[in-house]
Amino acid sequence: MKYMSTRGKVKGINFQDAVLMGLADDGGLLIPEEIPFMSINEIEALKDKSYQELALAIMKKYISDIGETTLEKIVFKSYEAFDDERVVPVIKLGDFYLSELFHGPTYAFKDVALQFLGNLFEYILDQRNDYLNIIGATSGDTGSAAIYGVRGKKGIKIFILHPKGRVSRMQELQMTTVLDDNVFNIAVEGTFDDCQYIVKEIFSDVEFKREHHLGSINSINWARVLAQIVYYFYSYFQTDAADSMSKVNIVVPTGNFGNILAGFYAKRMGLPINKLVIATNENNILYRFVKEGDYSIKNVVQTYSPSMDIQIASNFERFLFYLFEEDADKVRKSMEQLKVEKKIFFNDELMEKVREVFDATSTSNERNLEVIKEIYEKYKYIVDPHTACGIDAVLKLKNIYDEPFIAMSTAHPAKFIDSVVKAIGVKPEIPRGLRELEDKEKRVYELDANVNLVKKFIEKNL
Ligand SMILES: N[C@@H](CCOP(=O)(O)O)C(=O)O
Description:
Elements: E1 3-5, H1 15-21, E2 30-32, H2 40-44, H3 51-59, H4 68-78, E3 90-93, E4 96-100, H5 110-128, E5 132-137, H6 141-150, E6 156-163, H7 169-176, E7 183-189, H8 192-204, H9 206-211, E8 214-216, H10 222-237, H11 241-244, E9 248-253, H12 258-268, E10 273-280, H13 285-292, E11 294-296, H14 316-323, H15 328-341, E12 343-345, H16 348-357, E13 358-362, H17 365-379, H18 385-397, E14 405-409, H19 417-424, E15 445-448, H20 451-460
Parallel strand pairs: 4-14, 5-6, 5-8, 6-7, 7-15, 9-10, 9-14, 10-13
Antiparallel strand pairs: 1-2, 3-4, 11-12
Helix pairs in contact: 3-4, 3-10, 4-5, 5-6, 5-10, 6-7, 10-12, 17-18, 17-19
């Protein structure tokens, strides 16, 4: 499998180079040159595989420059630190399924891909006798998952930018209490969008990127999306729908569009998905897009689900590429339009195509807490505020569609204790990895939201 850029100037590169390149050198995002399609019989044959076996079966369709035995080792190693042997267990709450994606070391769905990416980087760098300086932006969960994915790995340094005061206390502590010499946490005066903008600007300086061997852990990096495709299949196989290989709807709490994009690839690969439902909070650009064709950037507001406090969803560009029938010029022009006019225009014909695949909901802050409460009172089960946005979508849509729903549960509620306590007056059980973080020594650097300042900081610490 070869990879190319959504903006058309980078083509024909292999998987390992795509992983190291992160953001494509023309400013676009790397995607596979084709999406492997599987017949329903082929998909059904994967049904009884373990998570790791399934990951191998799917990933090898996209990776032709790593031998199967090596890939198998990387995959198996990546899921050793999960606290459930199924990696992604699926439970049933009443009439819908909940896919628990938070059983990794930092208790969010990001671990599923970042444990894999950390091991992948280690393998590639070792083969090439090379080193890597990772730059990433986080609205809360990616940061710690990336740090845990690469801490202690030879030849890797990691610089993580988070918006100061806009992540939960637990998310902040998960990052800032990691004191390894190769870890640099930067609290930026601004929003996540500012952090992501800085990271993308730094990667767009191709000279700087090459000179300093910069790499990406955000879902800009194709390997992130690839590893996430697996749990759409695995979650589906754990539902009754898999008995007859019939369709399901899948709800995904979404900020940066990376998680749901993996679902889009799973659907294109043939997985029987009816609708992918984008569950947003009050930062609802993706909801406005699906419902009204309005893709215009507004100011970010702070919500109880901070990981989704995002307006500029970086993976939207990958979706645009397919929406525009693989026309890289149209993608480039639209991204240019977004930069200048802060919006992209979509005609009715395009929106019809969008709505064939996606539906969307938006959950207010107030409703978010209500959902946490409703679920707790009904099932004695505590969900985090991001998952609650997803469950709100299930509750709003389940009478409209015939197919059963799977909601992706993206984080452990203990990462958002304050909001959970506000909703139900009860503290969720704190898992071992999150206990006593407050008492630990912390290290964080503070910088203004300025590309050059961040570049200087990185150069000083290489
Ligand atoms: N919600 C994310 C934002 C970054 O998204 P990514 O999928 O591109 O890493 C976070 O928690 O940091």
